[in-house]
Write a structure and sequence with these properties.
The chain is of the alpha/beta class. It is built from three helices and seven strands, in the order βααββββαββ. Belongs to the GreA/GreB family. GreB subfamily.
Length: 159
């Protein structure tokens, strides 16, 4: 399924593991108990607790499988240990300016850690691919849904 590593920051891996542990250790056992109780109440065809519980159990098992595969393929990369801090690599926080001198601050993180509202963009996103390897002052052209734009790298920082 996954032909390339799933790059994650240490915090991103910890978040995946925490979600897995919460689902597997807390929510799933409680749900199994509820389903067992509901099954003992008789007719299952009209038992909402039983029907909903089984549906939710399938969703949890599907999510656990997904999280398990993502963690197995994970390659944890600590951006603080990046040696070449003059170029954009995984974990870099980059300030870019467009043609209208609008500044954006973006952090390149793993695809499972993305949150556009916080400026966290996935390592394999088009914007991140365009910025890879860039140095301060470099111009990079990015094709976005609104059209093609050119961005200049203003600053690069690492944690």
């Amino acid at each position: 399924m996954i032909d390339r590593p799933n790059y994650l920051t240490p915090a991103g891996y910890a978040a995946l593991k925490a979600e897995y542990d919460a689902l597997f250790g807390t929510e799933r056992p409680q749900l199994v108990e509820t389903i067992s109780w509901a099954a003992g109440n008789g007719d299952r065809s009209e038992n909402g607790d039983y029907i909903y519980g089984r549906k939710r159990l399938r969703e949890i098992d599907r999510r656990l499988g997904f999280l398990s595969r993502r963690m197995k393929a994970a390659k944890v990369v600590d951006p603080a240990k990046q040696e070449d801090r003059d170029r954009v690599f995984f974990g870099a926080t980059v300030t870019v300016a467009d043609e209208d001198d609008n500044h954006r601050v973006l952090t390149l993180v793993g695809d499972d850690e993305t949150d556009a509202g916080k400026g966290l963009i996935g390592w394999n996103a088009p914007f991140a691919r365009a910025l890879r390897g860039a140095a301060i002052g470099d111009l990079r052209r990015v094709t976005l849904p609104g059209g093609e734009r050119e961005y200049e790298v203003i600053a690069i920082t690492y944690p």
